[in-house]
Amino acid sequence: MTGLLPNILGFFRPAAVGLGCALFCAPVPGVTQVRDGLPEVLAGSAVGDVTGYALADTRDGRWIDAYGETGARVPASVLKIVTALYGLDVLGPNYRFSTSVLATGPVEDGVLSGDLVLVGGGDPALDANDLKEIVADLAEARLSKVEGRFVVVTGALPELAVIEPDQPLHVGYNPAISGLNLNFNRVRLTWIAGEDGPVFGFGAPGTGFEVLVEGVAGELGEESPPRHRVEDGREVWTLDAGKMRRDGAVWLPVRDAAKYAAEVFASLAGEQGIELPEPEFVAEAPEGEVLVEHLGAPLIDVLRGMLRYSTNLTAEVVGLQAAKENGEAPLRLEESALAMTAWARERYGLEDAVFIDHSGLSDRSRWSAEETVEVLLAESGRLPLILPLRPMPGGIEDAPDGAFVAAKTGTIYFSSGLAGYLGDAERSLAFAVYSSEPERREGIDTFSGEPPAGARVWGNRARELQKNLLTAWFAAEMPPLPLRPMPRP
């Protein structure tokens, strides 16, 4: 699929951005077609009666096909499309998150007569490699001793122990949020099986190295999934001994993200001969001289990674930072997401969409297929350039040259979505498909770590329906060009 990127870049010209709101931001009338019962493709699916979809041509905004498109359904991670646009509009594509180190006193002969201050800027993609680079720059500046405190500044963003309390608490995609994040706020648990039980350790890996983390500990138990508590200043995970009979590894979320990052930073500094005292955490940075500043990647690249890998932490941080840039001071994700909802309603003329977070992890957000396609039409000049390319559906064997699907998926139990663009070198269509049965989530044990009864089959059927719709749309709207007769020599 990567070979198709030049075709897409050529098709979606920047000039299309100018058409955006002028043509497509106003709400459009319902386009549900008059049918006797469900359309054939939906009638053949077990989730057809809980599905809505819409399809439109990006060239002129013509609506081609739709069914149940006005029904507001759970978008799951498709919601990240709005977050990406929000970040681009408010922060700008070249915005960079910053992480810096300050000195509150002079540095003479390698000795800092003051405090060393690690200032988090909320960078969601900061990793152990970046911290190692920052520490190496400190060592290169010949810093070897700190006479004052080790201060860690975390107030760039609200400190939240978890993204979504109603989601499993042991999964890496549901971490904490902080003004200082590291490795997507996950710690890597590894274990080696033995006759007397497994030997396990916690670490923050980088490229070719791993920093041992002592602020997170584990104990064996018989509970599944892993259980978390804080004891004597450490995060403690109770691990199921029955699932650790063979060597293995898994990512676990950390709940005190800033403390985790500070420990890794101090360990890396110690390796460079810079011994630091225990960290002290504050909300605002004191006055001081900047010794090192690390800038993250441009936001446009961060968003490409967010949409490709569906990183929830990145989405929440971008949304919170955009709200902050707009003069908001949200303390909870819902407050920030409702500010994004207001922005999206004004920007795109939406009426029914409601966003409860920036990642789609909550099952309380709602977005219809029609209003999703309205946004896709308005942003057909730039969204395809950051959405991930997806494999062509298996049933499309004779797709035209340069055919592509650029789209974002979204999945939580009993909700599945797919939205984006399909087309070829000549034409592009915007589409959205949502299947959702939120009432089936009521009463399920989301903390068990196991999918509820029927969830896997339901999800497979929803994805099969998405594939069948794409296949049908390709066949109807973008048939392959007929073969031309070869001229006789």
Characterise this structure:
The chain has eleven helices and 23 strands. It is globular, with a radius of gyration of 25 Å. It has a six-stranded antiparallel beta sheet with strand order 2-1-23-22-21-20, with helices on both faces. β21 (404-412) and β22 form a beta hairpin. The two termini are 36 Å apart. With 489 residues, it is of the alpha+beta class. It has two domains: 2-93 and 300-477, 3-Layer(aba) Sandwich (Beta-lactamase); 98-295, no CATH class. It has helices at residues 5-11, 20-24, 40-43, 80-90, 128-140, 257-271, 299-309, 312-325, 333-348, 369-378, 455-477; strands spanning 51-57, 63-67, 72-73, 98-103, 107-108, 111-112, 116-119, 145-146, 150-153, 186-192, 199-205, 210-212, 216-221, 227-231, 234-240, 248-253, 279-282, 289-295, 367-368, 389-390, 404-412, 415-423, 428-436.
C-alpha Rg, in Å?
25 Å
**Assembly level:** single chain
SS elements, strand count: 23
Q: Which class of secondary structure composition applies to the elements?
A: alpha+beta
- The side-by-side strand order for the widest beta sheet comes to 2-1-23-22-21-20
Separation, N- and C-terminal Cα atoms: 36 Å
Determine the CATH topology of the largest domain. Beta-lactamase
Count of domains: 2
Main sheet makeup: 6 strands, antiparallel
Q: Averaged pLDDT, please?
A: 89
Sequence-ordered SSE layout with sheet pairings:
Layout: H1 5-11, H2 20-24, H3 40-43, E1 51-57, E2 63-67, E3 72-73, H4 80-90, E4 98-103, E5 107-108, E6 111-112, E7 116-119, H5 128-140, E8 145-146, E9 150-153, E10 186-192, E11 199-205, E12 210-212, E13 216-221, E14 227-231, E15 234-240, E16 248-253, H6 257-271, E17 279-282, E18 289-295, H7 299-309, H8 312-325, H9 333-348, E19 367-368, H10 369-378, E20 389-390, E21 404-412, E22 415-423, E23 428-436, H11 455-477
Parallel strand pairs: 6-8, 7-9, 9-17, 13-15
Antiparallel strand pairs: 1-2, 1-23, 3-19, 4-7, 4-18, 5-6, 10-11, 10-16, 11-12, 14-15, 20-21, 21-22, 22-23
Helix pairs in contact: 4-7, 4-8, 5-6, 8-9
